[in-house]
Design brief:
Shape: globular
Helix content: 10-25%
Radius of gyration: 19 Å
Structural class: alpha/beta
Largest sheet: 5 strands, parallel
Distance between the termini: 38 Å
Strand order of the largest sheet: 1-2-5-8-11
Order of helices and strands: HEHEEEEEEEEEE
Number of strands: 11
Length: 156
């Protein structure tokens, strides 16, 4: 009994301090689905960036699921601030890979740059291939820059 009350107090304190957040209601429904495949294969887009630019309207306020087929995508992906509610879903982090090499090594050249709120990535890897053979970490650049509210990176 004492142990249960002790844990309840700890949980309550975490809520008060903002360590945990309560999420209410069911997940929001997907309003649109877009398919990307680097080989074509019946998909509308062969590049993820084209799917975001052309498939998601500006000032979007409904979830758009972008199915990203297995394969290696050689591109940089940017989700601009007015393209919210993007859900990128790959076929597994070892099967769906976005790989790119920065040229100048600047932050703006991250393989994935998310500036919009409400972003989810699942089952997809982002790799910066600059200096992949380097034995030191100091010469490597970041793979992702996320500057948003409510972003989720799901495993698998």
């Amino acid at each position: 009994m004492y142990l249960t009350i002790k844990y309840m107090v700890v949980v309550f304190i975490l809520f008060l301090l903002g360590g945990w957040k309560v999420i209410e209601g069911a997940p929001a429904p997907i309003s649109k689905e877009i398919y990307v495949n680097p080989k074509g294969g019946g998909a509308v887009f062969t590049k993820i960036q084209d799917a975001i630019n052309q498939g998601i309207p500006e000032t979007n306020n409904k979830w758009v699921l972008i199915h990203v087929a297995a394969g290696v995508y050689t591109e940089n992906v940017t989700v601009v601030q007015n393209k919210q509610y993007v859900y990128l879903k790959g076929e597994g982090r070892s099967k769906t890979i976005v790989a790119s090499m920065t040229i100048h090594g600047s932050v703006e050249e991250a393989v994935l740059m998310v500036l919009a709120d409400n972003f989810i990535a699942q089952g997809i890897s982002f790799k910066n291939t600059l200096n992949m053979d380097s034995s030191t970490l100091e010469n490597r650049m970041m793979s992702a820059l996320v500057a948003s509210v409510r972003e989720i990176a799901k495993p698998r």
